[in-house]
Amino acid sequence: MRETNLFVVSGPSAVGKTSVVNEILKRDDSLSRIVTYTTRTKRESEKHGEDYFFIAKKDFLSAAERGDFVEFSEVYGNYYGIAFSTLKEKMKEGKDAVLVINWEGFLKIKKALPKNVYGIFILPPSIEELERRIRSRGEDSPETISRRMVLAANDIKKVEFYDFSFKNFDIETTAGDILATIDEIRQKSPIA
After folding, report:
1. d(C-alpha 22, C-alpha 183), whole Å
2. Distance in angstroms (rounded) separating the CA atoms of residues 100 and 69
């Protein structure tokens, strides 16, 4: 039996991380998703326990104080975190896992688990296309969109910390390219 791998997917807001990961999981049932906790409001298309565990800010902060999270951070005024219990459950399953987190979280995970953790960064086709995607959500004020674009430019600079990067022109192609990379890594994974 080979060692399990953790594939961490990051990228700026609205680049399509969740959509790409959902497509990857649809195509490869030998991968499982690590669901993170968040205090942000659930979008209409999202499902609790599948996309995120949506919890109240006070409950999140209490869990963070108890040390329940491997890592957590604040992004756009909302908290996101990965519970130790979730990681332990996935490791017991013996399946490779996919985790969607920001670059700060990736660096913390990479430091805590330096072995068999691979960073995959998703880039937009262009900064203009990223702004169009953010605007098309219809969720943000012009001021918030401007702030997101500044943060996105900063996020994109963090691509250098990742093992692989892919431009997301369309979900199906990007998912296929990432799956091909995952297959190459699996072929090289040592036997546990």
Report:
1. 17
2. 15
* Residue 11 DSSP SS3: coil
Q: Give, for all 192 residues of the chain, the pLDDT tens digit.
A: 567 899 999 999 889 998 999 999 999 998 999 999 999 999 888 889 888 999 999 999 999 999 999 889 888 789 999 998 887 777 777 789 999 988 988 998 888 877 889 999 999 999 999 888 888 887 778 898 888 899 999 999 999 999 999 999 999 999 999 999 999 999 887 655
Q: Whole-angstrom Cα distance, residue 79 to residue 19?
A: 21
CATH number of 6-188: 3.40.50.1000, 1.10.540.10, 3.40.50.300, 3.50.50.60? 3.40.50.300
Instruction: Quote the pTM value.
Output: 0.83
Task: Please list the helix, strand and coil fractions of the chain in percent, rounded to the nearest 5, in that order.
Answer: 45, 25, 30
Query: Pairing relation of β-strands 96-100 and 6-10?
Result: parallel
Any idea where the domains of the chain sit in the sequence?
A: 6-188
Residues sharing a CB contact under 8 Å with residue 187, sequence separation 6 or more, in sequence order: none
b (16+ CB within 10 A) / e for 127-161: eeebbebbeeeeebeeeebeebbeebeebbebbee
The sign of the torsion formed by the CA atoms of 157, 163, 167, 171 equals negative
Residue 46: CB atoms within 10 Å = 14
